[in-house]
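Researcher: Quick test of sequence recovery. Tokens follow.
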């Protein structure tokens, strides 16, 4: 809705009522990270499959899957998938670490970041068994949601968008805004329109997006793996890795909230919190390294040393 070049994690969505009906609906408004709304919208429009198959390896997709579908008996599997995937994402550091244009301090920092990410993977693997149920999980049943059909019409999507304000409001009286996260540095422009505009736009994209998702290559195969990768390709690889780590932080925060509601030991809750913080610090540090595409990586970023993860709690 903003641009094909923006990551889903960098999109914020806002809902509000038109002034002409605001008083009737209590001046209601809402908004936040778009993936929370996507996780609610998808089961409304499509029947979730009885067998989800293997969990996605892309951490952006894994985050959305966890928010939309992960039941109590699947939380351990989500964390195990995250733990297994992190070492693969580190392969994206291959080209920048060997780039002659990368300043020595940045190269040393990335070496330390690589070591920290691998330690975080082991740490998450040790924490995940705490989410295993002490009994066999119950049979999974599909949520009882109203599903318009395998191909929702534009009006179905428009109605679902409007329902985030109220089931009684006319879709044309719901104003949506898609805004880039401030961390994008103003490189993208926000879009505002009624739900009746965004519904048909979203409908036009659904089938193409779903078909493309089934044929995506493994994440670590996406960047150019040539030893002669350009500075722009190296920057793109690091930007993608930074985004994957941000999604990993969101998954860990989700698991931390689940550990609270399931009343797991406090050390599990604290461990997940510190791990999420470390992952986000690494993501922010990596995002400061890439130069603009097509330019040499000459600037030396000022980076805090990666935090070495604390020892993980023992298995229960």
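Model:
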């Amino acid at each position: 809705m903003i641009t094909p070049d923006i990551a889903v994690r960098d999109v914020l969505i806002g809902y509000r009522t038109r002034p002409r009906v605001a008083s009737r609906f209590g001046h209601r408004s809402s908004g936040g990270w778009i993936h929370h709304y996507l996780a609610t919208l998808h089961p409304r429009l499509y029947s979730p499959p009885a067998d989800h198959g293997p969990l996605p390896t892309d951490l952006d997709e894994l985050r959305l899957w966890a928010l939309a579908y992960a039941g109590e008996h699947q939380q351990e599997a989500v964390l195990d998938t995250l733990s297994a995937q992190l070492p693969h994402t580190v392969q994206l550091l291959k080209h920048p670490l060997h780039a002659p244009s990368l300043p020595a301090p940045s190269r040393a920092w990335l070496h330390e970041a690589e070591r920290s990410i691998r330690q975080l993977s082991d740490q998450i693997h040790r924490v995940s068994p705490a989410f295993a149920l002490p009994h066999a999980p119950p049979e999974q049943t599909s949520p009882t949601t109203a599903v318009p059909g395998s191909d929702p019409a534009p009006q179905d999507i428009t109605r679902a968008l409007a329902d985030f304000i109220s089931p009684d409001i006319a879709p044309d009286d719901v104003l949506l805004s898609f805004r880039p996260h401030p961390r994008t540095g103003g490189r993208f422009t926000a879009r505002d329109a009624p739900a009746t505009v965004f519904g048909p736009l979203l409908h036009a994209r659904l089938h193409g997006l779903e078909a493309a998702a089934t044929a995506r290559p493994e994440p670590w195969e996406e960047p150019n793996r040539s030893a002669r990768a350009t500075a722009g390709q190296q920057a793109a690889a690091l930007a993608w890795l930074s985004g994957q780590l941000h999604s990993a932080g969101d998954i860990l925060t989700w698991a931390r909230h689940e550990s609270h509601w399931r009343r797991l030991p406090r050390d599990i809750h604290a461990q997940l919190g510190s791990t999420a913080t470390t992952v986000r610090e690494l993501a922010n540090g990596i995002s400061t390294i890439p130069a603009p595409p097509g330019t040499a990586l000459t600037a030396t970023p000022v980076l805090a040393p990666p935090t070495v993860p604390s020892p993980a709690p023992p298995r229960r």
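Strands lie at 11-17, 29-33, 174-180, 191-194.
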